[in-house]
Amino acid sequence: MNDLTNDAFDRDELLQMTVDIVSAYVSNNALAATQLPELITTTFRSLEDLRGVEEIEEEEPLKPAVPVKKSIGDDYIVCLEDGKKLKMLKRHLRTTYNMTPEEYRAKWGLPADYPMVAPNYAKQRSQFAKKIGLGRKAD
Length: 139
Description:
- With 139 residues, this protein is mainly alpha-helical.
- The protein has helices at residues 3-28, 36-59, 90-97, 101-108, 119-131, and strands spanning 77-78, 85-86.
- The chain has 2 domains: 3-59, no CATH class; 68-131, ROS/MUCR transcriptional regulator protein (Arc Repressor Mutant, subunit A), CATH 1.10.10.
- Helices cover 57% and strands 3% of the residues.
- A two-stranded antiparallel sheet has the order 1-2.
- The radius of gyration is 26 Å and the shape is elongated.
- Mean pLDDT is 87; it is low at 1-5.
- Pfam families: ROS_MUCR.
């Protein structure tokens, strides 16, 4: 397809979206007939502006706060979002970014077994659990 055909398709698509948005707005809101042309024009221009924004946003690659290889220390995990050193990453992700560990791993292209807890902290918790008898089968 040549550029002219793509532009015509994009324009038709934007016009259809404009019709849908304006129709939905007018069916739920009181609007004077003299305000309708302005609403249509404003909506169409806003959609045109958004089309350009999407293209820019898609081109920007994600850059972690620290290199992934340096994000796991013995006593801490570094958050790739903000560079904070933490013992447990899961709660920080949920409270600060409203993100699950799975979403975090997917966003940064991390393997499924990427830890959410610092290695030494995990060992310490494991030893404590074993010490108090957790993880044993009942007799």
